[in-house]
Design goal:
Elements lengths: L1 H12 L6 E23 L10 E18 L3 E9 L14 E7 L2 E5 L5 E11 L1 H15 L3
Antiparallel strand pairs: 1-2, 1-4, 2-3, 3-6, 4-5, 5-6
Length: 145
């Protein structure tokens, strides 16, 4: 009984998202320089003693996949951080439909394989037709021209 109650609380705790259908306008992978970290190793080759070490530095990069998703009202630019070398970005088709939900600074996306991804919204661009439509509605409601 307690297990069912706990499972019911976990299910009710999940947020209900407002899923939309948009169009993937672009997708791009980018590497951003993060830092340089030391790397040390032993010179076991050519008869050197293993306690002799060399110190080198190697660059570390943050890898991002950037998606541009368009709707009737606005365009979203979102970044998915690929934390590991074996991490894969969301598999979406450029100029194809995509299901997504925007919640504050997060964008949740369902790719072509049905997998859910969470990414950060970098920019929201309001389309001019949507902006002018809301201005016209405001002017009509206030009675000013």
């Amino acid at each position: 009984m307690l297990l069912l109650l706990t499972a019911g609380l976990a299910i009710s705790k999940e947020r209900v998202r407002d899923w939309q259908v948009g169009k993937v306008l672009n997708s791009k992978r980018s590497d951003e320089y993060a830092a340089t970290v030391p790397r040390s190793g032993t010179n076991g080759e050519y008869g050197n003693y293993p306690d002799q070490t060399t110190s080198r530095h190697r660059p570390v990069y943050n890898v991002y996949q950037t998606f541009v998703i368009g709707t009737d009202k606005c365009t979203y630019v979102a970044q998915q951080r690929l934390r590991w070398r074996w991490s894969k970005p969301a598999d979406v088709t450029v100029n194809g439909p995509v299901r997504f939900a925007a919640d504050k600074r997060k964008l949740f996306l369902i790719d072509d394989d049905g997998k859910k991804y969470e990414m950060e919204i970098v920019k929201r661009i309001l389309k001019k037709s949507a902006a002018s439509g809301s201005k016209a509605a405001d002017q009509q409601s206030t009675g000013s021209k």
